[in-house]
Write a structure and sequence with these properties.
This protein is an alpha/beta fold and about 220 residues long. It contains nine helices and six strands; from the N terminus they run E-H-H-H-H-H-E-H-E-H-E-H-E-E-H.
């Protein structure tokens, strides 16, 4: 029986991916980095910063100026966030109230740092909607490794097989599947690729569809 939903933040709860892409691209332009941007964004989507660093050094060479790249991107991001936080995705925050009425526990499991994520949730007034908030700085292995989801489930006191993962990215889907959880994809900037579909419980258009799916699954058990 499903007892918890573990939500990714960027691209799932927040409509933030376009903003992040723009900040990375401004840093690329300033540093004159000739990178395949589509391949870069596909590879890093859902990753925490240490995992992004490891990817860049492996892909572009050990002399790749990652720290300067990261700092520039961070500067541009902070400037953008001073104006306003990224907007919420459709169905947020109403879906959290619906799940709570159903007795479903919730966690935010994001590759961003816990402090950063908590601050964004507070700015939207929804930090109290989660039983647990866990960031990429709380785990050793970033997505696509399942560590963050397994840790979130443990903090909730729920078995992995009783959890739903709600994700928008390839790396997030891989992590949810590897954790042995019901994995749901809510595509954001990229559609669900055919090779991911066998790993999914469902692919849905908006989070609004999730409560009904959970109710139907729990009625079977």
């Amino acid at each position: 029986m499903i007892q918890a939903v573990l939500f990714d933040m960027d691209g799932t709860v927040l409509d933030s991916e376009l903003l992040y892409h723009a900040c990375w691209e401004k840093a690329m332009d300033e540093m004159h980095l000739d990178l395949d941007r589509d391949a870069f964004f596909l590879a890093i989507s859902g990753m925490n910063m240490p995992t992004i660093r490891a990817h860049c050094l492996k892909t572009y060479g050990e002399d790749f100026p990652f720290e300067e790249f990261r700092e520039l991107r961070h500067t541009y991001l902070m400037q953008a966030l001073e104006a306003a936080p990224p907007p919420l995705k459709p169905g947020v925050p109403q879906i959290f109230a619906t799940l709570r009425k159903m007795g479903i526990r919730t966690a935010l499991a994001t590759s961003s740092s816990c402090e950063y994520a908590t601050n964004l949730m507070k700015r939207h007034g929804i930090d109290g909607c989660f039983d647990v908030i866990i960031g990429g700085d709380h785990v050793k292995n970033g997505k696509p490794h399942p560590e963050i989801f397994l840790r979130a489930a443990k903090l909730l006191g729920v078995q992995a097989e009783q959890c739903v993962v709600a994700e928008d990215s390839r790396n997030g889907v891989l992590a949810g599947h590897a954790a042995g959880m019901y994995t749901v994809m809510v595509p954001d900037l990229l559609p669900c690729s055919e090779d991911l579909r066998p790993l999914l419980w469902h692919c849905i258009d908006t989070l609004w569809e999730l409560p009904a799916l959970i109710e139907a699954e729990n009625r079977k058990q």
